[in-house]
Design a protein that fits this description.
Number of strands: 0
Strand content: under 5%
Distance between the termini: 74 Å
Order of helices and strands: H
Shape: rod-shaped
Radius of gyration: 28 Å
Largest sheet: none
Structural class: mainly alpha
Number of helices: 1
Helix content: 25-40%
Length: about 60
């Protein structure tokens, strides 16, 4: 069997930081606001279109 290579860690070297997982203060409303605006606009446009082709009784 091949010998396993053991890596020595220098205690004075900086340790890598753990991956960023978010947390308090990291929640940005920008992407959420864009998604809500897209769905709201699509709802209005689709509702009016369905009203014009007589698949809805009211435009909204």
């Amino acid at each position: 069997m091949p010998e396993t290579e053991q890596r020595l860690v220098d205690p004075t070297s900086p340790q890598p930081s753990p991956p960023h997982r978010g947390g308090e203060g990291d929640n940005t409303a920008g992407p959420h606001a864009v998604a809500v605006a897209i769905f709201f606009t699509g709802e209005i446009v689709l509702s009016r279109m369905l009203y014009r082709i007589h698949l809805r009784d009211e435009p909204y």
